[in-house]
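[audit] Reproducing an earlier prediction to check determinism. Same input, same settings, fresh worker. If the tokens differ from the archived copy the diff job will pick it up downstream; this log only records the rerun itself.
[audit] input (229 residues):
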Amino acid sequence: MPRRPRLSLPNVPLHLIQRGNNRQAGFYADEDYRRYLEWLDEYAATTGCRVHAYVLMTNHVHLLVSARRAEAPGEMMKALGQRYVQYINRTYRRSGSLWEGRYRSCPTQTDGYLLTCQRYIELNPVRAAMVEHPADYPWSSYRANAQGEPSTLVVPHEVFEALGRDALERQAAYRELFRHALDPGLVDEIRRATNGNFAFGTGLFGAQVATALGRRAIPGKPGRPRRPP
């Protein structure tokens, strides 16, 4: 069965995840994380992508990006993947693929959903029991978004900018969102949308994405379609 084309639209945030091949590690040392972020910053700039949130886990990566061109996220991930895999293979004297063949992704509605997706991304190390608080994990965008740590990579989305009148107010409002854990149902919904290449948002948002792209953007009903009478 052919793979469904990715759902990508200009200026619509895209949550994407790339996993290690057979769930193997993609990062082995601190230098690996630093190199990945350095090149992510470089290729985001050259392709015109804005990175709103990220987390680098041991064997997978989450990004929340938007771009004026629908093709830009794919171009960024291709260039980044080629360079990073060459670096890993050369450094650790290995060969073969490092990541799964395709990253998984879902367009994300801005109002009411974008900040939920950002929290989902930055809370990954907490859900994995690697740290007790997202600020304790060095390889995510939490410190930039919530604590104002300087970053040339992270570009706040307009929804984030609307949290306050200045940077300190926005950071405080964003930190307040982390006082409570994400609802498990929302976590499942984000995973289902990302793994299935569906829209993450309201039914109306899913219908709008489907109309814009001319293909299905929400999960179908299980079972075989009923025959007409």
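[audit] rerun output stored. Observation attached for the diff report: The radius of gyration is 18 Å.
[audit] end
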